[in-house]
């Protein structure tokens, strides 16, 4: 499986249930979200715009992924609502690894490209690092309609958060058909 296939399999509506642990405070919180994940073709205006923001040629983009979420966390009154666009750019010598572009999140002022790799076990690993934080997220499918996600966020000052999510596809029995080509198809 390559990154485009992983993103394609992720497309759809999902219910996500998570547990997060603030390790420094020895505190755990539960939460849940509704996710809407949409595969975007390389030519989508959001993909092109994101590549241009990172000063990269949009033709290097393999595809894009738009993720919208609407969720709650135990003990917090405010809902967590947001969205992001992700764009993978494969390493020329290693198509299962590359750079992952993403839109800025709330309060972020600096673009930060991360890395992705798809392992032989079909697990997607995403990493990002700056002077003040390091994050690592791993995602994999137990079956086409059940996905798991773990993440670790380490911040300067010693604060770390770990989380586990189980995500269940809603309303369909398989991912929608692909709207973009896989890396293997592009090379042919």
TrEMBL record:
Q: Which domain of life, per UniProt?
A: Bacteria
Q: EC number(s) for this protein?
A: 4.-.-.-
The yes or no answer to whether the keyword Lyase is present is yes
Q: Which GO terms describe its biological process?
A: protein-tetrapyrrole linkage
Coiled-coil residue windows: none
Give the UniProt keywords, A-Z.
Lyase
- In this chain, the stretch annotated as Disordered covers 169-188
| Similarity section | Belongs to the CpcS/CpeS biliprotein lyase family.
Compositionally biased residues, Polar residues = 179-188
What are the recorded GO MF terms, alphabetically? Answer: lyase activity
Query: Which HAMAP family is this protein grouped with?
Result: Chrphore_lyase_CpxS
What function does this protein fulfil? Covalently attaches a chromophore to Cys residue(s) of phycobiliproteins.
- Could you tell me which InterPro entries the record lists for this protein? Calycin, CpcS/CpeS
Cross-referenced CDD domains: CpcS (cd16339)
> Is the keyword Lyase assigned to this protein?
yes
UniProt protein name:
Chromophore lyase CpcS/CpeS
Identify which top EC class this enzyme belongs to.
lyase
